[in-house]
Amino acid sequence: MAVFVLLLDILTPKKKFSALAGVFFGLLVGILISWALAPVVDMISGTFSIDVTEAAITAIKWLLGICICYLTISIVIRTKDDVRFVIPYVEFAKQTKGARPLVVDTSAIIDGRIVDLCQSRLFDAPLIVPRFVLNELQLIADSADKLKRNRGRRGLDILNKMQSDPVIDIEIDDTVLPEVEEAKGVDQKLLLYSKACNGRLATTDYNLSKVARVREVDVVNINDLANSLKVVALPGETMEIKIIKPGEEAEQGIGYLDDGTMVVVEGARNKIGRELIISVTSSLQTSAGKMIFGKFEGFVQEARTSAQETNEDNRRRQFKKSGRSNNIGETRNRG
Asked: Is residue 129 in some structural domain?
């Protein structure tokens, strides 16, 4: 019994029901095979006149049974997701009860809007982040490119926020599926993983969404959802943006928001590397993402300096007024 408990604990580190079912099924098959082979041991001992005691034969049967049970449990655990037993009809395929899980890719995590969607209870399905997606996030966060590094760190911060939120049901899945591991590229792994767990793929990648539909994988494009909800920047709003590179047209500069949204600014081509205050003129929301167009209004540093000077002037005026009122009060008291 102690050996069985130890074997059960080693083979089922996560104690999932599917793994436990596989262990018990493998154990049942192993016991049946051991029971069938027990007379063979007696027959071999009698046929070849092997001089062994009854206790030794019993010990051999026990060792043979333990080895066979271990082999059958190992085989069932490793192949429970892709082996179908016809007689009797037993299948260890994953069957999802309730809402189908959402498999979240790297772009959806970095985008960050999925957090608000889950907190608003719009998505009540559990979120699954495969291990290879987490590895890709870590690679992006360790990138030599500053923009990519910031995006990767933002994704890791958002993932930590989702894990600490009691409203969001999220799981980092370490399950190793052979057909997924053999695939090349994270996108291909996501498609195969979504099919294997009968889930829906949540992404903001336009091309991945198209490929998923071709491969008959259900996909939830966050940009399509945002487009349906008409989440856009209103004309006339102001925002701060750092210009990263020149635009395609003359006098245009391009910057990016924290979620990767491209901002095209008129009159900012010669202001690369500076933080600007812009006013939004229009915005465009498509399946490929969101673009914001604006015009240059001023520099952030100058606006902050001006605000500080204004605050200092106000303080001086208030100080002078308080000083005058004190002098008037003293004069009246003397009188």
From this structure: yes
Please tell me whether residues 111 and 192 are part of one structural domain: yes
Neighbours of 201 (CB within 10 A): 25
**Domain end call among 91, 124, 146:** 91
Backbone angles phi, psi at 292, to 5 degrees: -120, 135
Token pair recorded at residue 170: 């999220």
- pLDDT score of 94 more than 80: no
- Separation in Å, CA 98 to CA 125, 198, 216: 8, 12, 21
Q: Residue 225's domain spans which residues?
A: 102-229
The number of beta carbons lying within 10 Å of the beta carbon of residue 307 is: 10
Q: What is the pLDDT of residues 226-253, one digit of tens each?
A: 776 654 577 888 888 899 999 888 889 9
| pLDDT tens by residue, 134-173 | 999 999 999 888 888 998 899 999 999 988 888 888 888 8
What per-residue string of b and e applies to 101-137 under the rule 16 or more CB within 10 Å gives b? Answer: bbbbbbbbbbbbbbbebbeeeebebbbbbbebbbebb
Prediction pTM value = 0.49
Q: Based on the domain organization, do 218 and 118 belong to the same domain?
A: yes
